[in-house]
Design goal:
The protein has five helices and eleven strands. It is of the alpha/beta class and 268 residues long. The strands form three sheets. The protein has a six-stranded mixed sheet. The protein has a three-stranded antiparallel sheet with strand order 3-4-5, with helices on one face. A hairpin with a 4-residue loop joins strand 3 and strand 4. The radius of gyration is 25 Å and the shape is globular.
Length: 268
């Protein structure tokens, strides 16, 4: 079961798709990594058979036997604030009045602090603890067969899988196709020009896409954005886990980059 605003790649695998509301179609708060609790207000009516997120979640909970009876999203925020120390002195009414409040906040009418640990760290003496660590090489290093380093990431224009940004006519016009970014030196070594097709291969798969000269990319490195299903970078990445954080090594693996000029069929 998937709850989303579009029939995304993930939703296409679901047995049930619940049509949710988009950001401009609902009231609620969002907290960003800058610690700002921001108020969002509905600006557009719900289209078709879509439902508010709270309506969907609460209806599912009630059908599963839970006594959830929130009348408004503000009641959910009040419950969150009761359970989360980070929201001390931040009420729905305050965020509604001020549009955004940055935590931590020392009082109901006091502005949020710009620096979290400006009065010291929550440790004996208020000092932070720095611990040295030993370098550990990635799980897969370049070798004679796969001499390049593949790294993946976002673009300015497209976010993650592009489920929303690739539906934007303006953004998609700026970046309509997947490209492999390579340095000037790497392109020269491969004997290709920017825009020529390349084939990027790892021990897990192959994708073909256009090349792009990017002098911010070091020699021997290829960068592929992961927003394009037609050249899915995550088919190539290494699922090996970091032994401590248990994070997959999606940002580093050995790869091979080759010229991928299309094969021209002989005229009959």
């Amino acid at each position: 079961m998937v709850q989303d605003i579009f029939l995304t790649e993930t939703a296409s695998y679901a047995d049930v798709v619940l049509p949710a509301s988009a950001w401009p179609e609902k009231d609620g708060t969002v907290t960003n990594t800058n610690r700002q609790v921001q108020m969002g207000r509905a600006a557009l009516p719900l289209p078709g058979d879509t439902r508010q997120d709270l309506w969907i979640i609460q209806d599912l909970a009630q059908r599963m036997g839970e006594n959830w009876n929130y009348k408004h999203v503000s009641e959910v925020f009040t419950e969150m604030a009761r359970l989360m120390p980070a929201l001390d002195n931040i009420t729905w009414e305050r965020v509604e009045r001020e549009d955004h409040v940055t935590y931590p906040v020392d009082g109901p009418d006091v502005p949020g602090r710009d620096v979290v640990f400006d009065k010291g760290f929550p440790r004996p003496g208020g000092f932070a603890k720095l611990v040295a660590t030993k370098f550990k090489a990635p799980d897969e290093m370049p070798d004679a067969e796969y001499p390049f380093i593949l790294t993946t990431g976002r673009q300015l224009e497209h976010w993650h899988t592009g489920a929303m940004t690739r539906r934007s006519v303006v953004l998609d016009a700026l970046e309509p196709n997947a490209c492999a970014s390579l340095s000037r030196g790497t392109l020269a070594k491969l004997g290709i020009s920017p825009g020529d097709p390349v084939r990027v291969t790892t021990r897990r798969g192959t994708v073909e896409l256009s090349s792009r000269q990017d002098d911010a990319v070091p020699d021997g490195v290829v960068f592929i954005p992961f927003a394009y299903v037609e050249a899915a970078a995550n088919l190539l990445t290494n699922p090996a886990l970091d032994p401590f954080g248990k994070i997959p090594e999606f940002k580093f693996c050995a790869a091979k980059v080759e010229n991928a000029e299309p094969v021209r069929e002989a005229a009959e």
